[in-house]
């Protein structure tokens, strides 16, 4: 049964204007929740999973995260308005980071004194929200490793290792893959991680008329696969809907640049962009999932990649709420996913990783 709630006031100040909870495509319990408001088109939150409780919480968390990035309540005279304090997660050393590297809406009052506004760019890489600081930082860190792996894989056309579906033993994962195969002719999973301490699973799927992708990171392989499949299912729904409607009728906001590029691709174009991964050798399933403390995990990855890893806390849109919103990043890592705007050789991380040139330098990643 589909459940839809709409705030009839349509007020521009409404925190929550639209909530949709449904099972539009996937049977036997897979659910989708999407929440949005009138405050900003880029603030919608969406999640897919088997538990109503979990998908609603995840959607609301992402929605609040985006609101805090697009509709920050920082005032022009606030001392934090120009810079955010960030700390090295391992050493505690602090640095100041320009607000323009963290927030996403440059029409906010405190940006009016910025010069060269056209050169500013940021996205949600490394951003996460949770009800406690530790889990928010862990989620942000895994998001950081995930996106750095995706960016480097794309720029270098570096192959990963292929996860054979017949080697997956978890029943829940088999159930999810079985449902997804009702909507795609082919589904492939790859480990594209730049770190031996974290799995980053990229899922690709193709149908005659639509396609999808999902990516997720975790030290536990099955958890990384599960997260990737859930994101794949969510993006697949958007791809199917986009195929049914003319893309010329889809109004995209500036904040939806990645989605606009992605959903305007043809199936053939999408497959060709990722064809280098299809040559990946099979992954050794005998490799066990990793178990680390939080500090061990950060230390191992930071040392492996030869870059410092920082975290900054972002003021929540709901000032009295318990949510903690963070961005985990490295000044030496890739700054965002808009690969058209930076030279990868300017960042130290590219020298810490194997590569044979950057064939996709200056080309957008086909990821929404």
UniProtKB/TrEMBL annotation:
<protein>
    <submittedName>
        <fullName>YcaO-like family protein</fullName>
    </submittedName>
</protein>
<dbReference type="InterPro" id="IPR003776">
    <property type="entry name" value="YcaO-like_dom"/>
</dbReference>
<feature type="domain" description="YcaO">
    <location>
        <begin position="1"/>
        <end position="368"/>
    </location>
</feature>
<dbReference type="Pfam" id="PF02624">
    <property type="entry name" value="YcaO"/>
</dbReference>
